[in-house]
Write a structure and sequence with these properties.
Layout (H helix, E strand, L loop, with lengths): L4 E9 L4 H15 L5 E8 L6 E8 L2 H8 L2 H10 L3 E9 L12 H6 L15
Antiparallel strand pairs: 1-3, 1-4, 2-3
Helix pairs in contact: 1-3
Length: about 130
C-alpha cells in the first residue's frame, strides 16, 4: 500500500548535542525503515540555523503511525531524545499531489528550452 500520511517534525536540539542527535536519529531510522507501514523518512538540517532539524516520514495511514508512536521502540527513542531536545512541533499531512521532473514525458522535456530551465532546483526521485 502507498503512503497516505506524511509526518513533518520540526525539532530544536540543544547547542552542542547536534552530532549526538543525528547519530541517535540514524540508528532509530534504521529500525523504523523495516516496518511495513513506513514508506521512508528523511532528516534535514535547516540551513543557517544550528540545532534546527526537520524530519519527513511517510506512513500507510494515521492509525499505523499512531500505533508506531505507542510502540516500545519509539518510546525508548523518545526517552533518549527528550533530554537533548529544546522544542519542536509535529504536523500530519495528507498527500494531495506529487509532481516531479521525472513525471515529465520525453516529449514534454524535448519541447522545453533546457538552456533556460534550471533543473538543479528539481528533486529527482530515485
Amino acid at each position: 500500500m502507498s503512503a497516505g500520511l506524511r509526518v513533518l517534525l520540526e525539532i530544536r536540539i540543544a547547542p552542542g548535542r547536534e552530532s549526538e542527535f543525528e547519530e541517535l536519529w540514524r540508528g532509530h531510522a534504521e529500525e523504523v525503515r523495516l516496518l511495513p507501514d513506513n514508506h521512508g523518512q528523511r532528516l534535514y538540517r535547516q540551513a543557517g540555523l544550528d540545532g534546527c532539524y526537520t524530519v519527513l516520514t511517510d506512513w500507510t495511514d494515521e492509525p499505523s503511525f499512531r500505533a508506531f508512536e505507542r510502540s516500545d521502540a519509539q518510546q525508548a527513542y523518545l526517552r533518549r531524545l527528550w533530554p537533548m531536545r529544546e522544542g519542536g512541533s509535529m504536523s500530519l499531512l495528507e498527500p494531495l499531489h506529487d509532481l516531479s521532473v521525472t513525471d515529465l514525458s520525453v516529449t514534454e522535456l524535448s519541447a522545453t528550452d533546457l538552456s533556460s530551465t534550471d533543473l538543479s532546483r528539481h528533486e529527482v526521485a530515485g
